[in-house]
Amino acid sequence: MSTKRTGTPLVEMRDISIAFGGIHAVDGVSLDLYPGEVVGLLGHNGAGKSTLIKCLSGAYQADSGEFWVDGKKATIESPIDSRDLNIETIYQTLALADNLDAASNLFLGRELTTPLGFLDDARMEAETRKIMARLNPNFKKFKEPVSALSGGQRQSVAIARAVYFNARILIMDEPTAALGVHETEMVADLIKELKSQGLGIFLISHDTREMMDLCDRVAVMKNGKLIGNERVEDVTEDDILSMIIMGKNPKKAA
Ligand SMILES: Nc1ncnc2c1ncn2[C@@H]1O[C@H](COP(=O)(O)OP(=O)(O)OP(=O)(O)O)[C@@H](O)[C@H]1O
Ligand SMILES: [Mg+2]
């Protein structure tokens, strides 16, 4: 669970702000992420968690602030910019095409073709089986449309897609919110697997317990501001709750 925060961070967000009308959805937030690290974002509804990671994923353009990826200043003005930096986002409402099978979803928009330019279904299925064998060996439903999959299985298809396309930074916005206990455990196992492979993960969840189990660090936001950014071994669940509720970091109290 402990992280070596040495070397160059995968990502550094520096002083990111974005406002909608008069609302400072994200207000001067700085946060970094190292390889093999899971950083959890916690906070009440409307705290600014999704907005912050949408700036990183290029869905929104930050009004000010800087992104640094692998020690280099990066321009993120669109989802394509973000993806080009090997940042992949998995939203709770997964963008999967229900009527297509796992392989078609994995390669959606980035299909493999034969030398003659035809869709190479056999190779896409073989690649999908290969990556699933690594990520979720119990996955067997390769021939069925993803509408026939459970929530956890759908998550694993979305995660496989990100990993296949060399994601190094994975953003997961409430990946387990709609899942049952067993499915949630499956996604937790996937997160641990990706972490062991050196990916950096930003994870958003409202489940403080789950976050303390899965994350190396937790960052708490309130009203757009970063209240705390602490290694899990340095805080108690109560510390985190007081940051979420009171907007005060007991670790910083004089
Ligand atoms: N596109 C938008 N237009 C206007 N306001 C927005 C937009 N997106 C977010 N906001 C506002 O920004 C603030 C932060 O919202 P955000 O979705 O980031 O919160 P959150 O921490 O992810 O909350 P939740 O836990 O409910 O998902 C809220 O006040 C929200 O209403
Ligand atoms: Mg949100």
Automatic annotation (TrEMBL):
PROSITE patterns: ABC_TRANSPORTER_2 (PS50893). Its main location: membrane. It is found in: Cell membrane. One of its GO terms (cellular component) is plasma membrane. Keywords: ATP-binding, Cell membrane, Membrane, Nucleotide-binding, Repeat, Sugar transport, Translocase, Transport. Pfam families: ABC_tran (PF00005). One of its GO terms (molecular function) is ATP hydrolysis activity. The keyword ATP-binding applies. This is Monosaccharide ABC transporter ATP-binding protein (CUT2 family). InterPro entries: AAA+_ATPase (IPR003593), ABC_carbohydrate_import_ATPase (IPR050107), ABC_transporter-like_ATP-bd (IPR003439), P-loop_NTPase (IPR027417). It comes from Litoreibacter halocynthiae. Residues 11-248 form the ABC transporter domain. It is a peripheral membrane protein. The keyword Repeat applies.
